[in-house]
Automatic annotation (TrEMBL):
One MF term in the entry's GO annotations: channel activity
Organism, scientific name: Scomber scombrus (Atlantic mackerel)
GO biological process: extrinsic apoptotic signaling pathway in absence of ligand; intrinsic apoptotic signaling pathway in response to DNA damage; mitochondrial fusion; regulation of apoptotic process; release of cytochrome c from mitochondria
Pfam families: Bcl-2
Gene Ontology CC terms, in alphabetical order: mitochondrial outer membrane
Protein name from the UniProt record: Apoptosis regulator BAX-like
Length: 205
C-alpha cells in the first residue's frame, strides 16, 4: 500500500480531502446551518498529511471552476438536491459519480468528484436540508473507499497526483484568463516544490 510504510495513509488523506473540499464550499454558510462533519471522516495524523490535504484542496478548487461552467453537471447536482424522480438520492449521486468516471479513473476526475460533492453539499444547505450534508460526505467517502482507493494505491498514492492535478489546475485557470499564465506557473511550481519537499521528508521517516 503506497505511503503506508512511511507513516502516510492514502485513505486518511483522501477522506480528509473530501471533508476539506466540502467545508471550503460551505465556508460562506452560517456555521449554525452546517452539521459537524468530523465523525464521518478520519482525521489526518501528521503535519505532512495536513500539508498534502491543503495543497491538493487548492488545486481541486481551481479544477472545480471548469465544472462550475458545465451545465450538465450543474443540472445533475441540482437534480440530486431537489430529490425529484423515483430514484433514491444515493442512486442519483451514484449516477453522477459514474458519469465522472465513465471514461476511466484519472487524478483530475477524482478531483472533479470531490468538487461535485462540495457543490452538492452547498445545494443541500441552500435547499434547507443541512443534515443531508453529512449524507453527501458519507456517500463520497464510501465511493472513494470502494471505487477509488485501490486505484490511488496502485498509482503510487496521493504524492503521485501532484503533477497531473497541477497541470489540470493550470489549464483550468489559463482557459478562464490567459493573461494570468505566468502567475499560474509560479503558483503551480510552488505547489509541486512543496509536495517534493514533503515527499523527501516522508522518505526520511
Amino acid at each position: 500500500m503506497a505511503n503506508e510504510g512511511n507513516g502516510m495513509s492514502d485513505e486518511r488523506i483522501g477522506e480528509a480531502l473530501i471533508k476539506e473540499v466540502i467545508q471550503e464550499e460551505l465556508k460562506e454558510v452560517p456555521s449554525d446551518d452546517v452539521p459537524p462533519l468530523t465523525p464521518l471522516a478520519v482525521e489526518v495524523k501528521t503535519e505532512q498529511e495536513q500539508k498534502m490535504v491543503t495543497q491538493l484542496g487548492k488545486m481541486i478548487r481551481i479544477i472545480g471552476d471548469r465544472v462550475r461552467d458545465d451545465k450538465e453537471f450543474q443540472d445533475a447536482i441540482d437534480g440530486i438536491a431537489r430529490g425529484c424522480g423515483t430514484e433514491s438520492t444515493w442512486d442519483r449521486f451514484k449516477k453522477v459519480a459514474d458519469k465522472v468516471f465513465e471514461h476511466g479513473i484519472t487524478w483530475e476526475r477524482i478531483g472533479v468528484l470531490f468538487y461535485v460533492a462540495g457543490r452538492l453539499a452547498l445545494r443541500m444547505v441552500e435547499a434547507h436540508l443541512p443534515q443531508s450534508v453529512r449524507e453527501v460526505l458519507r456517500w463520497t467517502v464510501d465511493f472513494f473507499r470502494n471505487n477509488l482507493l485501490g486505484w490511488i494505491r496502485d498509482h503510487g498514492g496521493w504524492i503521485n497526483s501532484f503533477s497531473d492535478l497541477a497541470s489540470a489546475s493550470m489549464q483550468s485557470v489559463s482557459s478562464l484568463n490567459p493573461h494570468s499564465c505566468n502567475i499560474i506557473v509560479i503558483f503551480v511550481t510552488g505547489l509541486v516544490v512543496g509536495s517534493f519537499i514533503t515527499w523527501r521528508l516522508i522518505r526520511r521517516l
